[in-house]
UniProtKB/TrEMBL annotation:
A molecular function (GO) term: heme binding
Protein name: Cytochrome d ubiquinol oxidase subunit 1
Main location: membrane
InterPro entries named in the record: Cyt-d_ubiquinol_oxidase_su_1 (IPR002585)
Pfam families: Cyt_bd_oxida_I
Record organism: Ciceribacter selenitireducens ATCC BAA-1503
Transmembrane segments: 20-43, 55-72, 92-117, 129-147, 190-209, 221-239, 391-412, 424-447, 474-495
Location within or outside the cell: Cell inner membrane
Any one GO cellular component localisation term in the record: plasma membrane
GO terms (BP aspect): aerobic electron transport chain
Keywords on record: Cell inner membrane, Cell membrane, Electron transport, Heme, Iron, Membrane, Metal-binding, Transmembrane, Transmembrane helix, Transport
């Protein structure tokens, strides 16, 4: 297969996924925030909280609809652009996607309709339950998608069947409770909560700057700052857990992120900044923080983190082991499964390295005939391009800590300083609205680009996963997707800005009635008051 077809297929899928993820984080976070706001409305019966729920719910609805449009296209690409991948691992990868479609998406879509059209048809408590079910459905969708993606990062609960020539599931439990998948889920949804919190904070700050809808803005800031602070702290903590899981399942990705060319004595230092040089295999002008990488990556002071050079040597050994598995597999095919116990035992002993032998397909049709030089080239292919991973990770982490600082400051001002926000701080809140999306996209770049050259880590190389399409087909559809998604993005931005400028609908009669009842409650004599003598 021509490499340019693979690269164009990767580019098309990356573009689709990154466009889609412009919508996902806000959906995840806003669903929880509006559920919190409606819960406060049910508890207090104050109309302002209902108005807030409806206003932020409208923005959630716009984002949700456009997110669905991009997500459906992305799932179709598995069959169209990555047909061999779908054939090879479809038994495992398709299961969580099917569950997501049958359970989570239907739950989410059904109750979204009730959320928007059930205000005057459901009781307050029933509508609040609907809103929480929308939030649960949104997060449940993310769970199953990330279980599927987590399996690509750490393919547990499955094995290769030499008779069907496919990967088959051996334990649904192991797939669902995959350590990498669970770490990715909690980290990703927490990032979505931060995204929505920064969005609500920024829009509310803009209202305060314009002296409009100040009651809604101040209460929204209080919710966003408290929820956002907890979420930002959890992103960092859960990101650390995600990094710890990578230490065990994707050692090459961790070494590339750190720019760790050689294995260092334990505990390894963390490279704060530097300039990775792939050709020289060193990081120039590196600034190290002692012990930190060892503590993060291994939770100990004695365990080493292998460097890129040692991992390439291990890859070469696994390629040679994979050649033995490939030879046994060809015997299986020639004998139509009627093989000796010796062949069967040989295949079972080396089957976990079969994917490494498939790396040789880039250089030779039959991996058994590969030369030593070709084996060395295939081993070197397991090293992703280091410098973009190195810097993307550090920028993502820097943004993560900045969110903690921003949310902590606004939480302090909202809780203990009577919401007396300086105008400079409000403008800052508006300016940083795009930054959580930047951090989220960087996070996905690190996760997916760092996995290369694998579609399924250690199992199926990316170069073998793509469909047999022409360059012309890919170029035309890529241009069409870019145009289509750009139009969708412009539409969303236009609708979002329109409804933000419009602001919430204020039911004056409802508000006046509540204020009248509130004054009557305050002026009513206390049942505990002593009668006058």
């Amino acid at each position: 297969m021509e490499l340019d077809i693979v690269e164009l297929s990767r580019l098309q899928f990356a573009m689709t996924a990154m466009y889609h993820f412009l919508f996902v984080p806000l959906t995840l976070g806003l669903s929880i925030i509006i559920a919190i706001m409606e819960t406060v409305y049910v508890m207090t019966d104050r109309p302002i909280w209902r108005q807030m729920t409806k206003f932020w719910g409208t923005l959630f609805g716009i984002n949700f609809v456009l997110g669905v449009a991009t997500g459906i296209t992305m799932e179709f690409q598995f069959g169209m652009n990555w047909s061999y991948y779908s054939h090879y691992v479809g038994d495992i990868f398709g299961a969580p996607l099917a569950v997501e479609g049958l359970m989570a998406f239907f739950l989410e879509a059904t109750f979204v309709g009730l959320f928007f059209f059930g205000w005057d048809k459901l009781s307050k408590r029933a509508h609040m339950i609907v809103t929480w079910l929308v939030a649960i459905g949104s997060n449940f969708s993310a769970l199953w998608i990330l279980i599927a993606n987590g399996w690509m990062q750490n393919p547990v609960g499955a094995q290769f069947n030499p008779m069907s020539m496919r990967m088959e599931m051996t334990s649904f439990f192991d797939v669902v409770f995959n350590q990498v998948a669970q770490a990715k889920f909690v980290h990703t949804v927490s990032a979505g909560y931060v995204t929505a919190s920064v969005f609500v904070l920024g829009v509310s700050a803009w209202y305060l700057l314009k002296n409009r809808h100040t009651d809604l803005a101040r209460r929204s800031i209080a919710v966003a700052a408290s929820f956002g602070l907890a979420s930002a702290l959890s992103v960092v903590v859960l990101g650390d857990e995600s990094g710890y899981s990578v230490t065990h399942s994707q050692k090459m990705k961790l070494a590339a992120i750190e720019g760790m060319w050689e294995t260092l004595p334990a505990p390894a230092s963390f490279t704060l900044v530097g300039f990775p040089d792939q050709e020289a295999r060193e990081t120039h002008y590196a600034l190290h923080i002692p012990y930190v990488m060892g503590l993060i990556g291994t939770r100990s002071l004695t365990h080493e983190i292998p460097g890129i050079a040692d991992l390439v040597k291990q890859a070469e050994e696994r390629i040679r082991s994979g050649q033995i598995a490939y030879d046994a597999l060809m015997t299986y095919r020639a004998e139509k499964g009627q093989v000796s116990d010796e062949v069967r035992t040989t295949f079972e002993a080396h089957s976990k390295d079969l994917g490494f032998a498939l790396l040789l397909k880039r250089y030779v049709d039959d991996p058994r005939l590969a030369s030593d030089d070709q084996i060395k080239m295939a081993a070197n292919d397991t090293v992703p391009t280091v410098w973009p991973l190195f810097w993307a990770f550090r920028l993502m982490v820097a943004l993560g800590f900045s969110f903690i600082a921003v949310m902590a400051w606004f939480f302090w001002m909202a809780s203990f300083r009577r919401m007396q926000f300086p105008r400079l701080a409000l403008w800052l809140a508006v300016i940083i609205i795009p930054t959580p999306w930047i951090a989220a996209e960087l996070g996905w770049f690190v996760a997916e680009f760092g996995r290369q050259p694998w579609t399924v880590d250690g199992v199926l190389p990316t170069a073998l996963s793509a469909s047999q399409l022409s360059v012309t087909d890919l170029a035309i559809t890529l241009a069409g997707f870019v145009l289509f998604y750009t139009v969708l993005f412009v539409i969303e931005m236009g609708l979002m800005l329109k409804y933000i400028r419009k602001g919430p609908h204020v039911d004056v009669s409802e508000t006046d009635q509540w204020q009248k009842q509130h004054r009557e409650r305050l002026s009513a004599p206390s049942p505990f008051a002593q009668p006058a003598e």
